[in-house]
From TrEMBL:
Pfam families: Acetyltransf_1
Name of the gene this protein is made from: ectA
Pathway in which the depicted protein is active: Amine and polyamine biosynthesis; ectoine biosynthesis; L-ectoine from L-aspartate 4-semialdehyde: step 2/3
GO MF annotation list: diaminobutyrate acetyltransferase activity
The UniProt record lists the keyword Protease: no
EC number: 2.3.1.178
Transmembrane regions listed in the UniProt entry: none
N-acetyltransferase domain segment(s): 12-170
GO biological process per UniProt: ectoine biosynthetic process
Entry protein name: L-2,4-diaminobutyric acid acetyltransferase
InterPro entries the record matches: Acyl_CoA_acyltransferase, Ectoine_EctA, GNAT_dom
Keywords: Acyltransferase, Transferase
C-alpha cells in the first residue's frame, strides 16, 4: 500500500532499524498514548536481535514511525506484531499500513501467512487500522481475549484482545 501523497511523503524512508534508533523509538512511544512504554533496553533488543522483523520510518532522519514484532518461535507462519506507532505529525496518511505492508514484502516473511496483534477494546484507531489491512488483504479476522484484565493484569490494565488475521495469499 502506497503512502497518500503529501508535500513531504516522498521524504519518508522506511528501513530495517538499527540499535542507534532505539532511544528515538522509546521517546516516540512515550509520546504516543495509549501505547505502553517500554524500557530503553527492550527497544534496544527490538532494534538489534529483532531488527529483521521490525521497521522504522524516518522523515528528515527523524524517527516518525516504528513497528516491532517477531515470527512466533513455535508457529513460523505467524508474525506477532507487538507495537505499531506513528508520530502525530505523520498520522492519517497511510504510514502505519505502509510500514506493515512493507514488512510483509521482505524475504524473511516469505512463509508468513498470518498476522497477530493485541488491541485493547477502547483503541478504535488500532482496530480500524487492522480491519482496514484485513480488508485490503481479503483476509478474515478472529478476535478473542488473550490477556485478561483480571486474570493477567490484576485489574490494572484493560484486557488485550488477540486479532488473528489471515490467511494471507502470497
Ligand atoms: C494507530 C496508529 C498507528 C495509526 O497510524 P496512521 O499512520 O495514522 O494510520 P493509517 O493512516 O495507516 O490508517 C490506517 C487505517 O486506520 C484508520 N485510522 C487511523 N487512525 C484512526 C483514528 N484515530 N480513528 C479512526 N480510524 C483511524 C484510517 O482511517 C485507515 O483506515 P482506511 O484504510 O479504511 O482509510 C497511530 O494513530 C498511532 O500511533 N497511535 C498511537 C499508538 C497506538 O495506538 N498504536 C496501536 C496499538 S499497538
Amino acid at each position: 500500500m502506497a503512502l497518500e501523497p503529501t508535500e513531504d511523503s516522498d521524504k519518508i524512508k522506511l528501513g530495517v532499524p538499527q540499535s542507534t534508533d532505539a532511544s528515538a523509538v522509546n521517546l516516540l512511544i512515550q509520546n504516543s498514548p495509549p501505547l505502553d512504554t517500554n524500557s530503553l533496553y527492550c527497544n534496544l533488543l527490538q532494534t538489534s536481535h529483532f531488527a529483521n522483523t521490525a521497521i522504522v520510518a524516518k522523515l528528515n532522519d527523524q524517527v516518525v514511525g516504528f513497528v516491532s514484532g517477531y515470527i512466533k518461535p513455535e508457529q513460523p507462519d505467524t508474525y506477532f506484531l507487538w507495537q505499531v506507532v506513528v508520530g502525530e505529525q505523520a498520522r492519517g496518511r497511510g504510514l502505519a499500513k505502509h510500514m506493515i505492508t512493507a514488512l510483509f514484502e521482505r524475504d524473511n516473511f516469505r512463509d508468513v501467512h498470518w498476522l497477530e496483534t493485541t488491541i485493547t477494546p477502547d483503541n478504535t484507531a488500532s482496530q480500524r487500522l487492522f480491519k482496514s489491512l484485513a480488508s485490503d488483504w481479503q483476509a478474515s479476522i478472529d478476535v478473542q481475549v488473550f490477556f485478561d484484565k483480571h486474570a493477567h493484569f490484576a485489574g490494572q490494565h484493560e484486557s488485550e484482545e488477540l486479532y488473528r488475521i489471515g490467511p494471507l495469499q502470497r
